[in-house]
Amino acid sequence: MSTNPLKCWSKIAIALISCAIAIFVGISPVLAEVPSGEQLFNSNCSACHIGGNNVIISHKTLRKEALEKYAMNSLEAIRYQVVNGKNAMPAFGGRLNEEEIDAIATYVLGQAELDWSTKVEVSTSQEVSERKS
Ligand code: HEC
């Protein structure tokens, strides 16, 4: 034991901080196991659907108009296609669990509402109508 009480307290503080860091580092991979819909979309879907587009069949986008046209504008329809795949789109049923697929489908519908642009909220109404034309 150090004879200087300040030195002793600083050792305790260092030990506590190291402990907190160790716990945080230990927990963070657990937190990372539940990624958001956006993260899941980026790692599983964006290769073909970057920005809500479709690089293989260009008219089958994830935009609101296309989803409505092809009756894909519901959680159930998106969930079904993600689980089972369709033509050139692979099935994700074996790779993603139900919770993850729900998160992705919710994200896709939400982004379709925003026209896949996070700037929509800050745009003026004139910019929004220009974007739509
Ligand atoms: C390898 C490329 C590829 C990947 C990866 C992919 N898709 Fe697709 N996706 C397609 C193709 C191709 C179609 C059109 C299928 C058809 O109708 O023939 C499509 C269609 C869709 C549609 C319907 C669009 C419309 O306008 O009808 C949705 C919704 C969709 N994909 C969601 C997803 C989601 C969510 C993921 C990630 C889990 C994903 N896709 C991953 C290729 C892909």
From TrEMBL:
UniProt-annotated binding residues for heme c: C45, C48, H49, M89
Keywords (A to Z) from UniProt: Electron transport, Heme, Iron, Metal-binding, Photosynthesis, Signal, Thylakoid, Transport
Record note on modification: Binds 1 heme c group per subunit.
Localisation per UniProt entry: Cellular thylakoid lumen
Keyword Glycosyltransferase: no
Start and end residues of each Cytochrome c domain: 32-112
PROSITE patterns tied to this protein: CYTC
Biological-process GO terms, alphabetical: photosynthesis
One Pfam family cited in the UniProt record for this chain: Cytochrome_CBB3
GO cellular component, one term: plasma membrane-derived thylakoid lumen
Highest taxon in the source lineage: Bacteria
Keyword Transport: yes
Primary localization class, coarse: other
Annotated GO MF terms: electron transfer activity; heme binding; iron ion binding
Function of the protein: Functions as an electron carrier between membrane-bound cytochrome b6-f and photosystem I in oxygenic photosynthesis.
Family per similarity comment: Belongs to the cytochrome c family. PetJ subfamily.
Subunit structure: Monomer.
Protein name: Cytochrome c6
Species per Swiss-Prot/TrEMBL record: Leptolyngbya boryana NIES-2135
